[in-house]
């Protein structure tokens, strides 16, 4: 609908320009019959509506001699030239405009001679072509600029999505490596105990056979686990996995780096290793985000809970307005959310009314 409205408006403009040129021709007394002029004008406008976008160069080259013979088609020629400069390269538009100017100057020189009217007419038409081509090039440049901005925005959005997916994948791989260590340890213990039961002489033959089956199955399961998940382990990732007991050392490292961090550990009872590992990673990533987005701000870390209510990890830091911040893509919070979701917990984060940024994660107390 919008396209046809534009085409209709351009047809009206071409009709008005053609009427102006026809009136000028009639005043000079050398015009064709009025019905011939109107028919030529309708044909030119029809060609403008049908071929302005698809074949602007051919349309303009047809309208140039057509407009030199009749007055009405001259109104469609500048609009066709505008389409050439809008949809084709600049060199093509300049070449077509030059053809129009040379043809016009030659025909007018034969018809009028080197008179004042000739120079005025040629100057007017050449200036009209220059203005039309210049405006079309400006519109073309503006459209290209808008398209480039849209493409950059699309690429930036795709890059952000890629970074978020990489963060999720990295967090899942790290969790998989941690689970590999935990499961490998437990399966190894199972195999050891089964092997001990198998070699006990006082045990019945049936129990020793069952223990042998359990030991062999445990070894096979351990080997399968290493083949499936062990490939995720990085070459330098052979250190033991952290637990909740390592959080004070992590806080101390942040303090040595210049951060002001307060720690509150209020977990009642021994925390399961897997749960403590999740809490450690959440605190670690939250401290990293605080250093990036609120450098120099005080940070409060609280890890509280018990077996009945679960474990709660809270990290608060003051918001820094106008201060220097390190660039970030928001992948840290995505990684924390991925870990909390896989652990079956809940995550809340955002600014508070007290002018702080709060991150609160609840994790179920599972062994």
UniProtKB/TrEMBL annotation:
Enzyme class: transferase
Keywords: ATP-binding, Kinase, Membrane, Nucleotide-binding, Phosphoprotein, Transferase, Transmembrane, Transmembrane helix, Two-component regulatory system
One GO CC term on file: membrane
Transmembrane segments: 33-51, 58-86, 92-111, 118-139
The UniProt record lists the keyword Transmembrane helix: yes
Residue ranges annotated for the Signal transduction histidine kinase subgroup 3 dimerisation and phosphoacceptor domain, each copy included: 171-236
Stored Gene3D superfamilies: 1.20.5.1930, Histidine kinase-like ATPase, C-terminal domain (3.30.565.10)
Gene Ontology terms, MF aspect: ATP binding; phosphorelay sensor kinase activity; protein dimerization activity
Reactions catalysed according to its record: ATP + protein L-histidine = ADP + protein N-phospho-L-histidine
Superkingdom, taxonomy of origin: Bacteria
The EC number(s) this enzyme carries: 2.7.13.3
Protein name listed in UniProt: histidine kinase
Source organism (scientific name): Actinoplanes digitatis
Lineage: Bacteria, Bacillati, Actinomycetota, Actinomycetes, Micromonosporales
């Amino acid at each position: 609908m919008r396209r046809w409205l534009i085409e209709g408006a351009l047809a009206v403009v071409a009709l008005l320009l053609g009427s102006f040129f026809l009136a000028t021709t009639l005043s000079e007394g050398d015009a064709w019959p009025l019905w011939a002029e109107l028919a030529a004008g309708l044909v030119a406008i029809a060609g403008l509506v049908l071929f302005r976008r698809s074949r602007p160069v051919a349309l303009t080259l047809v309208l140039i001699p057509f407009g030199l013979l009749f007055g009405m088609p001259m109104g469609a020629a500048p609009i066709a030239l505008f389409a050439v400069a809008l949809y084709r390269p600049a060199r093509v538009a300049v070449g077509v405009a030059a053809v129009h100017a040379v043809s016009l100057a030659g025909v007018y020189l034969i018809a009028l001679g080197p008179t004042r009217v000739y120079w005025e007419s040629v100057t007017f038409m050449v200036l009209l072509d220059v203005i039309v081509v210049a405006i079309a090039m400006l519109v073309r440049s503006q459209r290209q600029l808008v398209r480039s901005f849209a493409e950059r925005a699309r690429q930036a959005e795709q890059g952000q999505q890629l970074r978020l997916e990489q963060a999720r994948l990295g967090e899942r791989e790290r969790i998989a490596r941690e689970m590999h260590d935990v499961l490998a340890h437990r399966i190894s213990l199972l195999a050891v105990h089964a092997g001990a039961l198998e070699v006990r002489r006082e045990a019945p033959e049936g129990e020793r056979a069952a223990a042998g089956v359990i030991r062999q199955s445990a070894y096979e399961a351990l080997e399968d686990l290493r083949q499936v998940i062990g490939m995720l382990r990085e070459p330098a990732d052979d250190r033991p996995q952290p637990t909740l007991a390592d959080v004070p050392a992590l806080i101390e490292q942040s303090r040595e780096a210049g951060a002001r961090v307060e720690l509150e550990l209020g977990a009642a009872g021994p925390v399961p290793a897997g749960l403590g590992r999740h809490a450690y990673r959440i605190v670690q990533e939250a401290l990293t985000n605080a250093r990036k987005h609120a450098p120099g701000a005080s940070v409060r870390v609280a890890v509280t809970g018990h077996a009945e209510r679960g474990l709660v990890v809270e990290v608060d830091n003051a918001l820094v307005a106008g201060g220097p911040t390190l660039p970030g893509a928001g992948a840290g919070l995505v990684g924390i959310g991925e870990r909390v979701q896989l652990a079956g917990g809940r995550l809340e984060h955002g600014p508070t009314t007290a002018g702080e940024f709060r991150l609160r994660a609840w994790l179920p107390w599972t062994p």
